[in-house]
Amino acid sequence: MFFTKGLEAFGNYCTLMWRSFGVPERWKEFFRRYLNEISKLGIDSIPLILIVSLFIGCLCTILIKLNMQSPLLPRYTVGFSTREIILLEFSSSILCLILSGKIGSNIASEIGTMRVTEQIDALDIMGVNSANYLIMPKILGLVTILPFLVIITMVTAMFGGWAVCYTGILDPDTYIYGIQTDFVEFDVWFALIKSLVFGFVISSISAYYGYTVKGGSVEVGKASTDAVVMSNIMILITDIVLTKLLLM
């Protein structure tokens, strides 16, 4: 029974994505909505990203320093380990898990409210492809802006680690040397590739739950919660798959 419902939901999701991607009927309206989604989903999230990244960078540096007291380890290992954690996992995976709560619930509740208030039905009656009109700008907008948010996260988190060094836990120059040691450029590209995939996962799954909601305001809230939960699960699964494919 559970497998059948899951398979049916996956089929409905694929059908909705097929309807969503197509040539817009009015390019001017599409670009207006596309730029609006970039601002609403991405740029408005920058304050949250800056705060979280700054403190995570500080905490990573402090905790790594506390757990690497062995005289056999060079002191620059703190900066090196902080950089690896930030580039490989925090700047993409953990960031997207955090943003899925904000962005995913926003998308699901917005589209879900339009569904229960019959605005989507009105678009369909007028002959407008409601899936293409509502969903495609959100997906493309988030996929476009998320790599830039990842770069901001990288810089802010490593700056936070450098700033906390001035409390006396580590020499700042040693931290900088550790960040520069054995730097692999592909680690940055790896994070950016993951952000593109995660952006699609968050926006498409949230749009699906909002678009298919049935009932009233209570169901809209439940759809928002389900969208965040499923987005987080799929982020973790795709994170494992991408790590296996790209790094191993």
Task: Provide a short characterization of the protein structure.
The chain is an all-alpha fold and 248 residues long.
Describe the fold and architecture.
The chain has helices spanning 2-20, 27-42, 46-66, 77-116, 119-125, 130-164, 172-180, 185-211, 217-247. The protein is elongated. It has one domain (45-247). Helix content is 83%, strand content 0%. The mean pLDDT is 89. The chain is an all-alpha fold.
SSE blueprint:
Blueprint lengths: L1 H19 L6 H16 L3 H21 L10 H40 L2 H7 L4 H35 L7 H9 L4 H27 L5 H31 L1
Helix pairs in contact: 1-6, 2-6, 3-4, 3-6, 4-6, 4-7, 4-8, 4-9, 6-7, 6-8, 8-9
Overall mean pLDDT: 89
Distance between termini? Answer: 36 Å
Could you say which overall geometry the principal axes of the C-alpha atoms support? Answer: elongated
Domain module tally: 1
Instruction: Provide the gyration radius in Å.
Output: 21 Å
Short key terms for the protein model shown above:
248 residues, 83% helix, single chain, mainly alpha, 9 helices
